[in-house]
Specification:
The complex is a heteropentamer of chains A (185), B (478), C (517), D (599) and E (99). Chain C is mainly alpha-helical. Chain C is 72% helix and 3% strand. Chain C has one domain. Chain C has 21 helices and two strands. Chain C has a two-stranded antiparallel sheet with strand order 1-2. In chain C, helix 11 runs parallel beside helix 13, helix 13 crosses helix 17 and helix 13 runs antiparallel to helix 18. Helices cover 79% and strands 0% of the residues of chain E. In chain E, helix 1 runs antiparallel to helix 2 and helix 2 packs antiparallel against helix 3. Classes of the chains: A mainly alpha (185), B mainly alpha (478), C mainly alpha (517), D mainly alpha (599), E mainly alpha (99). The interface between A and E is large, with 93 and 73 residues.
């Protein structure tokens, strides 16, 4: 198997890996989320390098713009009031390390052995092509996906909505914890 | 477009019902209880329709194939849905009166996902349907939030969280595995799989199986099961413990036999290992449980092990027997959970000890629970016996004698804990004497389960024939 | 085609179903319904005996209904000579059992229901000619026992001792729940083994059928047979109390209520032995011939060890329970001989022991109901106040020790003769010794309970048998003597079956007819 | 009526009586009617037996009628039926006659019993006669065994008649166990015979080795039943039963069954000289040993009991010498005079309300009839010439002489002396001498009791002259020979009586009495058996019981325990921590991937 | 740059995500790890898409993204719930349901 040097990849890959490592090791959750943003951006760059600009765009928009923001919001909302940052766990980290590395080694070895090398990249799919497939071949999946998103939204709303009178009473009595979204009704 | 409508008519109906329920609720003025009955009625209507309207056929590109196989599963899901809705009705209107419509809607969303799964022959559709089935469950599992009696640990969020984290991890693995598979085969069609199988494909497929295994609650992806069963509302657990299992089974069967059928030597050992581990772990871990829900959770893990034994046979017969098993399992396990739910409502806890005197307080409930437990244990003349027997026979014919023997041995452990529950219900005298109060819907649901378990136990032939037909349809169309 | 067999099975089951309709307050009606169900099956069993053509032999009164034909499962009922004898036994015991439980006070509807369901299963096993149905009925017969013992049983304390004292922390050894659970679990482990054996037979039958007649004709590969036989032997043997899987039996029988003990020791244990004989010996004869020495050796351990254990017991019910272990050893010994005398003796012993132990437990129940103790040391002189009980008890003792003139003698003598004739003639020695030990412990118990100066204090005014209680001892006691003096009443049936089955096994017969000394 | 029918009637009549009494409870509970029913049954038996005898006198041939009893593979493994020949008919008469006399005697003797017990007593008597008749008429060894065991059963029930008395209960059980222990030999003998010849006929001719085995095993049963050393220990204890019972069971009939068995199975024993050798010695030892112990008994019934054992020793010795007829003859005469002795003793006991010789004395004036009866019996037992016992004992000793068994001959001669000596002792102590407190109030029993005594006195006197006829019945040679034996024997008898008068007439004690008493009270044999029972049987039993409860069952418990503990400790894996759950997913994936890769 | 190197990169990110998933106590951090894993899967798709061509890989990425977002939405809601229950988002606190 030939291993050709590729400058773009050589820059992007370390960024992705290192930032990913920071995501999982950062003590400060906000930092971790920001590192995730870095990883995702790196991934977007990789997509671009892999001739998938559309994906790169989507990645930046939804992930970096959406998910990371959401996460930061989540962290902010749930951070304790004394402001102490969460620490990365060290308990059981050996086991985690062992199995994670086992997974990595296993996968790498298999990849290496299977050697799925196709030297000449195929022609890229255009956005138009994508759209056509999406609304024909994948139509039903697409419909189902919309249902899925609807369900997720309904679910998320139901979960965080605070309407239950009992809980409200408890909250008023001070037995539950003070929250940002005090009482809805 | 017509073909699509026809093939997906039932699924559209259920999805429409979900949206309809949400809309009705948004309009306001309709009590949640009525909505519940309405939901059950809608599902019932769809179920009835399934007997008069044949949705067989396939859509362009073969993304989806409908036939006896799909119909069998759809009916199973619908039945589970109806029973679960009826079982939840009273609890919901009493405990979470302000968010009943969402509950039904989410359950219907999940049902929609399930109903699409068995027919999907394309990875994308399969994945989306699978997730559509799964995501509402995360929400429903955490439904209890902070409600519930004061003395009960409020493990609702925890139940959801555990389900979610293991589920998300499994989804990630599924995605990663699928990426490898699709990448290697170059197509999202399941049928492309066997032709292009490389070692990376196999690795990817193993990850996909892991994802399905999570939904089935098979070892070692079962860790969420007892905790979630304990924390989630029991009527919902009744649903969770059967319908998604059937969905997972459908997905796994489609993936292995339809997609990967010719590569049996690759996946069969994996299934066998999971089956063996599930039977052993489920049965052993159930032994020390004192909470009936946890106990039934582990028992469910073991039951899934039995189903996987049939699937591991990899034959048409095996598939048929797995279908029979899972269909009867719906009635048995759902019924068991609902009885436990009814009893716990009155006695204030789900511990085995709290069931003491149940048969004195409400003989019918006690007898029903006994029947369900015996069925789970695989005792003759209730349907569980046939289910287990058929599964083992199929496996035996396929040369999985070792698994059969193992299954029989650990089944004895199973008997021990099932009987422990029976001992509480029948032999111990509880302090309370007044009858268990259970709403009409709940009673109706339990009665249907009981009738099915006993009836099919006495005369299993119709369902066996149906399962055989479904399996043969599946195996021939692939 | 008459439906006698179906009626025999269905009568108790239908009576059980009818019980559900009887209101809980109508206690007499409940009993009458149960009794009618039991009597109908006894009558049909007698009719079966009269309709069975002894000259012709073989399977008769055949009825077949396809159940799951695709898997080769048919509801096939027919009766052979063994079946006739055992049907009669079951009919007698259930009638006696219903009468003996006339005074059950607590949750009586459920009690009779379970009792009737159980007995329907027993009838089914004896006439099932489809292996699968056989197993199905077997399970039905075994399972109600859990509730019957667990709910209506009696508990007692067993002191913690020995190397396994620490297990007492987890088990309430001696309690009824413990007994019920142990019994059920051990028997179901046995069922698992049977199921495996069944699969093996089914899968290797060529025709993929459970039909026992077809299986009898099939020559199974010897390797298969060698797996099937031990599974059948230990699987069914657990119920027959084969050492060392007998330990459910003393606790189970001691804890069970009267009628349940009667049925369990009287009939259910026979299911196990019958299974070994009918499935193990007949279906896989080649392996059976190879295994027979081991079966026989274990059986003589049962005989002697069971008797010795019984001799050491201080609790009346335990004595009887262990005596069952010992006597079932005689049955297994007879089965292991693989000749006509031994098989006849084994089946005859099933009947004889069934009646005898039924009588025993009925009487023990009477004594216990009055004296509220089972500790022999506390009793004495009861013959003064309850002479009828004493008389019947003595009769049961005599049959137990194999006194001529009682059914026990005929059975044991035939088994010993069969054993002596077989290739292991020395089996007869421990067998006879066991009978002697039996004489020691039963008469010791009899003396301790009934003989001696008239009882004082709390036992001074124990009542003798009352009206409904007469029936069980009278019927069972009479039969013991009748079958003891005129064994051909049953032997003619049994013999024709043994002949038939032995006749099909040329290899085995040749092997068994090696006359030793 | 055909002989077979007569034999069947003779056998079944008491059974009918017993059944009637068992089923019709009021009859039994009333008491007196039970006695009549039983007596009627016995009378029918005796009548039939006499008719049989008359038939034989008229030259009737042997008759054998059987029917299959146990089936084995389409052939009869065992048959039951009746055999009428020279052995069974005389024996039938002896048994029925003695039984009838005893029953008659009992009518009066037992009249103080409550009616229920009275009824039970006679029911058992009827059962006993039935059992004994089964033995007598049996055409093969299996039926003989069946009757033999039934005799054991009824004897058990009769010995334990006073079941409220712990000693009686103990004695009954002991008698049953000892005989049952010995009966295992019978059973084994039957099995060996069956395996070797396929039948239970005593006429079969197996190989010499088999014959030896069979006879040796049968002889074990004889030792038990006929109270031979060392299984004799149950016999003295069995005197706990009512005295008529002792007369019937332990004098005339039941213990005689052992001898009868050997007589019946003579064709088999004839093929086994080794067994006969053993029998000879066992008989001799028992005769001497029991006679010695009889010398020091204080209980009149125990004297008679030991004397029974001793006399049975004579019979067994004769059988061992190969002279079945001698044994059979002595069996017959002994039956009469021993029954007579026991009944007379019963009459005495009834009068003085005590068994002890100390409580008797000087009774000859108060109870002349009883005294006469007892003395006749004693003289007959002692073997005084002219009395029945003389002829039969002479035949026994003569047969030893004829075969040249000089040591047993000498020992048995000594035993004959002892017999006369101890019987002299009893007679002198009970009937002569000074009156004791209890005997002073004694008076003669009524006719109901003395009547049977008189009836039995006749054959005790005269049955010795029937030897020739009996011999012709069993086709044996018989002639009274005037040789060494009769002279020595009669002089021994007379010497014994003289010695008794000399020693006991003056109230003295027997020589070696101290030693013998020690031997008696220490009862080594008894103790050996008792400790064998306690340590051997019960010890092993409790060990087995413990092993079963705590080891075997313990192991089962342990299995369950280990499983449950396993489950409990495995539960710790379920930490409740989401991270760990996720980890399990990872582990699972890695394992699955490994399976996929390695496959 | 080859497919192999891309795949190995993805595997590395996947492994890192795994590591984070099983070691982090914070619910949000676990979500982040799941995101990493999903991202790794998408990388694989994109890589195959590049080297193999055809639209299916890219389409799949779109679906995967949507699904992940849905999951994150529900996940965050659950995190919120958990926080209300325990006052913290350390998931270790949520371990009451075990016996």
């Amino acid at each position: 198997m030939n291993f050709e040097f590729d400058l773009g990849f050589s820059i992007i890959a370390p960024i992705i890996v290192v930032s990913a490592l920071f995501v999982v090791r950062a003590k400060n959750l906000i930092h971790a989320v920001l590192w995730l943003g870095a990883t995702l951006l790196g991934t977007a760059a990789l997509y671009a390098r892999l001739n998938a600009p559309f994906l790169a765009g989507v990645q930046v928009l939804t992930y970096v713009g959406g998910v990371v923001t959401l996460m930061i919001f989540g962290v902010m909302v749930t951070r304790r009031h004394d402001g102490i940052d969460a620490e990365a766990s060290s308990e059981g980290s050996e086991r985690g390390l062992i199995f994670a590395s086992a997974f990595f080694v296993l996968l790498s070895v298999v990849t290496w052995k299977t050697a799925p090398s196709i030297p000449n990249p195929a022609p890229i799919a255009t956005s138009a092509q994508l759209a056509r497939v999406l609304l024909d071949y994948y139509l039903i999946a697409f419909e189902a996906l919309s249902l899925l998103l609807l369900a997720a939204i309904v679910g998320a709303v139901v979960l965080v909505r605070r309407k239950d009178p009992e809980a409200v009473t408890k909250l008023r009595q001070g037995s539950a914890l003070p929250l940002i979204n005090e009482v809805e009704s | 477009m017509n073909a699509w409508l026809q093939v997906f008519s039932l699924d559209f109906a259920v999805a429409g019902a979900a949206i309809l329920i949400l809309a009705l609720d948004a309009m306001g003025g309709i009590s949640g209880r009525v909505l519940g009955w309405f939901t059950a009625a809608l599902l019932g209507a769809v179920l009835v329709a399934s007997f008069f309207f044949d949705p067989s056929g396939s859509v362009p590109h073969g993304v989806y194939v409908a036939g006896a196989w799909v119909l069998f599963f759809k009916r199973v899901f619908l039945v589970a849905g109806i029973l679960a809705v009826l079982g939840s009705l009273d609890w919901l209107s009493e405990r979470t009166p302000r968010r009943q419509a969402e509950y039904y809607a989410l359950m219907l969303f999940s049902l929609t996902g399930m109903m699409v799964v068995p027919g999907a022959r394309d990875w994308v559709l399969l994945l989306v349907a699978f997730e559509l089935m799964g995501i509402p469950l995360y929400v429903l599992a955490a439904w209890a939030k902070t409600d519930g009696p004061a003395d009960e640990p409020k493990v609702g969020p925890e139940a959801g969280m555990k389900l979610f984290v293991t589920g998300a991890a499994s989804s990630a693995f599924t995605l990663f595995g699928l990426a490898l598979v699709i990448g290697e085969t170059g197509s999202t069609a399941l049928s492309a799989l066997p032709a292009q199988a490389t070692m990376l494909t196999h690795v990817g497929m193993m990850m996909v199986i892991a994802g399905m295994g999570f939904k089935l609650g098979a070892v070692p992806f079962h860790m969420w099961v007892p905790d979630t069963y304990q924390g989630a509302p029991t009527p919902f657990v009744a649903f969770l413990s059967v319908a998604p299992k059937a969905g997972g089974l459908a997905a796994l069967t489609v993936v292995t036999l339809s997609g990967w059928g010719t590569q049996q030597t690759f996946w069969a050992p994996a299934i066998a290992v999971i089956a063996a581990a599930s039977m052993v772990v489920g049965n052993i871990f159930a032994l020390p449980q004192t909470d009936v829900r946890r106990l039934l959770g582990f028992s469910g893990v073991a039951q899934i092990g039995y189903v996987l034994v049939a699937l591991g046979a990899g034959s048409q017969e095996g598939v048929a027997m797995a279908l029979f098993f899972i269909a009867t399992y719906v009635f048995t396990n759902l019924g068991a959970f609902l009885v436990v739910h009814a009893a716990a409502q009155s006695s204030g806890g789900h511990e085995t000890a709290k069931l003491a005197g149940l048969s004195r307080r409400s003989p019918w409930l006690g007898a029903s629970l006994l029947v369900f437990l015996l069925s789970l244990a695989g005792i003759p003349f209730v349907v569980g016996f046939w289910a287990k027997l058929f599964v083992f026979m199929a496996a035996w014919r396929a040369g999985l004698g070792g698994l059969v023997v193992l299954g029989l041995v650990v089944a004895v452990f199973g008997l021990f804990y099932y009987l422990s529950v029976a001992r509480s219900t029948f032999m111990s005298e509880g302090t309370a004497q007044e009858p268990i109060r259970a709403g009409l819907a709940l009673k109706l649901s339990i009665a249907v389960c009981l009738a099915a378990v006993v009836g099919l136990g006495l005369w299993p032939k119709p369902l066996v024939d149906e399962a055989n037909r479904a399996a043969s349809a599946f195996m021939q169309r692939h | 085609m008459s439906h006698l067999l179906a009626i025999t099975i269905a009568a108790p089951a239908i009576a059980g179903a009818l019980l559900l309709l009887v209101p809980s307050s109508a206690r007499l009606a409940m009993r009458v319904v149960s009794l009618i169900g039991a009597v109908i099956s006894l009558v049909t069993a007698i009719l079966v005996a009269t309709q069975y053509d002894r000259a012709q032999g073989g399977l008769q009164l055949l009825e077949t209904v396809p159940l799951v034909p695709s898997l080769g499962i048919h509801l096939k009922l027919a009766v052979d000579g063994w079946g006739v004898a055992l049907l009669l036994l079951t009919g007698i015991i259930i009638v006696a059992g219903v009468l003996a439980s006339w005074t059950v006070a607590r949750r009586d509807k459920e009690f009779f229901l379970l009792l009737l369901v159980l007995v329907a299963g027993v009838f089914g096993v004896f006439v099932a000619q489809d292996l699968f149905i056989f197993f199905l009925f077997y399970e039905i017969a075994v399972l109600p026992m859990y509730l019957l013992i667990g709910i209506w049983g009696a508990s007692h304390k067993v002191p913690a001792e020995g190397p396994f004292t620490f297990t007492w922390k987890r088990f309430d050894v001696g309690s009824k729940e413990y007994a019920a659970m142990k019994l059920t679990l051990m028997l179901l482990v046995g069922s698992a083994a049977i199921l495996v054996a069944m699969f093996l037979l089914w899968a290797n039958s060529g025709a993929r059928t459970f039909d026992m007649q077809v299986l009898e004709q099939t020559k199974f590969p010897i390797a298969v047979q060698h797996v099937v036989f031990p599974l059948v032997w230990l699987g069914f043997g657990t119920l027959a109390g084969v050492f060392p899987f007998h330990t459910w039996s003393p606790d189970g029988h001691a804890s069970a209520p009267t009628a349940v003990s009667m049925l369990h020791a009287g009939v259910l244990m026979k299911l196990g032995a019958f299974g070994v004989l009918r499935i193990g010996m007949v279906l896989v004869p080649d392996a059976a011939a190879w295994w027979a020495p081991i079966v026989g050796a274990v059986a003589i351990v049962n005989v002697l060890y069971g008797a010795l254990c019984a001799a050491s017991q201080k609790d009346l019910k335990y004595i009887i329970a262990y005596s069952s272990v010992s006597h079932m050893g005689v049955v297994m010994l007879g089965i292991a001989t693989m000749n006509a005398a031994g098989w006849n003796g084994a089946v005859y012993q099933m009947v004889a022991h069934g009646i005898m132990t039924g009588l025993f437990f009925a009487l023990v129940g009477l004594v216990y109901e009055r004296a509220h103790t089972r500790a022999i040391a506390k009793m004495g002189g009861f013959a003064h106040t309850m002479p009828v009980v004493a008389g019947f008890f003595t009769l049961a003792c005599l049959s137990s020790l194999g006194l001529p003139g009682t059914a026990g003698f005929v059975a044991e003598f035939m088994v010993f003769a069969g054993a002596a004739k077989g290739s292991n003639w020395w089996w007869a020695v421990p067998g006879v010794l066991g009978a002697f030990v039996t004489a020691v412990y039963v008469l010791r118990a009899c003396k301790a309970i009934f003989w001696g100066p008239p009882p004082q204090g709390e036992f001074a005014h124990l009542e003798d048998v009352r009206r409904t209680e007469w029936a069980a001892p009278l019927v069972l006691g009479t039969l013991l003597v009748v079958f003891g003096f005129w064994p051909r009443l049953l032997l003619d049936f049994i013999d024709v079956a043994s002949q038939g089955y032995l006749g099909r096994l040329p290899v085995v017969v040749a092997l068994a007819q090696v006359v030793s000394p | 009526m055909s002989p077979s029918n007569l034999a069947i009637i003779a056998t079944v009549a008491p059974a009918v009586a017993a059944l009637l009494l068992l089923v019709v409870a009021p009859l039994r509970h009333k008491g007196a009617p039970a006695a009549w029913v039983t007596l009627l049954g016995s009378l029918v038996s005796l009548g039939s037996a006499i008719m049989l005898l008359l038939g034989r006198v008229d030259g009737g041939a042997d008759v054998r009628v059987t029917t299959p009893w146990i089936q084995e593979g389409s052939r009869a493994m065992a048959e039951i039926g009746v055999l009428i020949d020279g052995v069974s008919v005389p024996m039938l008469i002896i048994v029925c006659l003695v039984a009838l006399c005893v029953q008659l005697f009992s009518v009066a003797y037992m009249h103080d019993e409550p009616p229920r017990a009275y009824g039970r007593y006679f029911t058992l008597h009827a059962m006993f006669l039935f059992s004994m008749n089964i033995v007598v008429v049996s055409p093969n060894l299996l039926q003989l065994f069946a009757g033999w065991e039934l005799v054991g059963l009824t004897s058990y029930l009769l010995i334990g008649f006073y079941f409220a008395k712990p000693s009686a209960a103990q004695a009954a059980v002991k008698a049953f166990w000892m005989t049952k222990l010995a009966d295992m030999g019978f059973l084994f003998g039957l099995l060996v015979l069956f395996v070797a010849t396929g039948s239970f006929e005593w006429t079969s001719t197996p190989s010499a080795q088999v014959a030896t085995w069979v006879t040796a095993l049968l002889f074990v049963a004889v030792i038990g039943k006929s109270a031979q050393f060392p299984l004799h220990i149950w016999l003295p204890d069995a005197m706990e039963g009512p005295t008529p019972v002792s007369a019937l069971l332990h004098a005339a009939t039941m213990v005689a069954a052992g001898v009868f068995l050997v007589v019946r199975a003579d064709p088999l024993f004839a093929q086994a000289p080794e067994t006969r050798e053993v029998m000879l010695w066992v008989g001799t030892v028992t005769a001497v040993f029991a006679a010695g112990l009889a010398l020091v008994q204080k209980d009149i019934k125990k004297v008679l009991a030991f004397s029974t054992a001793s006399q049975l020793g004579y019979m067994v010795a004769a059988l061992g010498a190969g002279q079945a007829f001698a044994g059979f003859f002595h069996l017959g005469t002994h039956a009469f005079f021993k029954a007579l002795l026991f009944l007379a003793a019963g009459s005495v006991i009834h009068a003085v309300h005590s068994n002890s010789l100390e409580d008797m004395g000087g009774l000859r004036k108060k109870m002349p009839l009883t005294t006469a009866a007892f003395v006749i019996g004693a003289l007959s037992l002692a073997g005084v010439p002219g009395f029945a016992g003389f002829f039969s004992k002479d035949l026994v000793l003569g047969s030893l002489e004829g075969k040249g068994h000089w040591i047993p001959w000498t020992l048995l001669m000594g035993s004959a002396f002892l017999t006369a000596f101890y019987m002299g002792r009893v007679v002198i102590k009970a009937f002569w001498g000074n009156e004791s407190e209890k005997s002073s109030h004694a008076h003669e029993s009524g006719l109901a009791m003395t009547g049977p005594l008189m009836v039995l006195a006749i054959p005790s006197l005269a049955s010795g002259f029937l030897g020739g006829w009996l011999a012709s019945q069993v086709k044996a040679e018989y002639h009274v020979h005037l040789g060494l034996t009769p002279i020595v024997a009669s002089s021994m008898a007379i010497l014994g009586i003289v010695a008794a008068v000399v020693v006991f007439g003056r109230g003295g004690k027997a020589p070696f009495a101290g030693v013998l008493e020690k031997l008696d009270t220490f009862s080594l044999v008894d103790r050996t058996w008792a400790s064998g029972y306690r340590i051997g049987l019960l010890g092993i039993a409790s060990l087995a019981g413990w092993i079963d409860r705590y080891l075997i069952d313990g192991l089962m418990n342990f299995t369950g325990w280990a499983t449950l503990e396993g489950g409990a400790s495995a539960r710790k894996l379920q930490t409740g921590l989401v991270r760990d759950y996720a980890l399990m997913v990872v582990v699972g994936v890695v394992v699955l991937v490994l399976i996929g890769v390695l496959r | 740059m080859t497919l192999t190197s891309c795949l190995i990169l993805a595997a590395a990110v996947m492994a890192i995500g795994l590591y984070g998933l099983v070691t982090r106590k914070q619910a949000v951090a676990m979500l982040l790890s799941v995101e990493l894993m999903a991202n790794a899967a998408n990388m694989v798709f994109a890589a195959y898409g590049h080297f193999r061509g055809g639209p299916s890989a890219q389409v799949f990425v779109l679906f995967a993204l949507a699904i992940t977002v849905a999951e994150v939405a529900v996940g965050l809601a659950l995190v919120m719930l958990l926080y209300r229950r325990h006052g913290d988002t350390t998931v270790d606190l949520a371990s009451e349901a075990r016996q």
